[in-house]
Write a structure and sequence with these properties.
The protein is mainly β. The protein contains 3 helices and 11 strands. It has a single domain (3-147), classed as PK beta-barrel domain-like (M1 Pyruvate Kinase, Domain 3, Beta Barrel), CATH 2.40.33. The longest helix is centred in the middle third of the chain and has 9 residues, at 53-61.
Amino acid sequence: MSEAAGARVEGIWIKGGRGGPMRAVDAATLVEGAGIEGNADAGGYRQVTMLDADAWERATGELGAPVDPAARRANLLFRGVDLEEQAGRVIRVGECRIRIRGETRPCGRMEQAASGLREALARGWRGGAYGMVLHGGRISVGDAVSWE
């Protein structure tokens, strides 16, 4: 597992309702034990979902056409952080801490975004990861991301 210098947050999305549209924001508040303030999915083990921009681009590159990462419906888009097989590790986003709980498996909804996307995301945790907020606070696009 490698991590490039300058790893950062490239995107933040909040889901207003189950199945509803994702709203891009420049900043959000992570709440310990709950997830992103105002996000429809709160509590439990899947408090926040994260996507690796490089893995997303590899997957969508196989399709031959770009697909907006918002179609993945993840909350956070990172650049320079490999999420594959990192369950149990803690990732820092700005001053916040998130424990990676597992892989976010792609669902049939991905086929609505682009034909073949579900299969392209099914390898190597390309569909992202989910986690629990251990220490909350304000995060913004551009914040540093690193492993503890």
